[in-house]
Amino acid sequence: MKNSEPGYVYILTNPSFREDWVKIGKSARPVDVRSKELDNTAVPLPFEIFATLKTVKYNEVEKLVHKTIDRLTDLRIRQNREFFNVPPQVALDIFRDIAITIDDAVVTLYQDNKPVEDGNPKEGEPLKKDPKKHEPKRARFKFSMCGIQIGEYVTFDPTGVQVKVATDDSVEYNGRIYKLSPFAGTFMPEEMRNQSGAYQGAKYFSYKGKVLSSIRREREK
Fold this sequence. Notes:
Elements: E1 7-13, E2 22-27, H1 31-37, E3 48-55, H2 58-72, E4 83-84, H3 88-99, E5 106-111, E6 114-115, E7 153-156, E8 161-167, E9 170-173, E10 176-179, H4 180-187, E11 205-207, E12 210-211, H5 212-220
Antiparallel strand pairs: 1-2, 1-3, 2-4, 3-5, 5-6, 7-8, 7-11, 8-9, 9-10, 11-12
């Protein structure tokens, strides 16, 4: 039977875990209730809410998030558990990718276990962006926007590694398929990582010596 009421898929972090460990699960109730339920003797410190995705399709979304991470690489800490060895920002990027395809999906970021936005936060509302710090929303990057064909190679500039274009929006590396942003978040050298852990993938790859985001801008003019 399909859900008629919305629920939540959540990303939880824990101060007692490594920085790139997260718990990704679901709850039919507000996530702050669920996080408190998980506060038991099995973990030294309470869980902290990093982000939520609210939708009536929360059961399906949770499975899709888990499957997406499993397909990217073997990052599940234990196969029968909801713990993953990925930075929370990478998991958040997957949330946002999925939310685009679901009409009622609302992604909310948290700080100190409370929803955050530019004004007074209200639960369930998406994070408002500062227009001075963020570009207007654009269509997601596709290699075809740069005239790059499947089978060609692009360079991940921070390490110089070349990766093969697998689909119009993903690359292949060591036999695994990655979207550009999760690839950047996973393989970014430690000394080049930013504080948020979020990366716009096209800014970190180049084709024939030119950065993909620059090629796109030139072709869109």
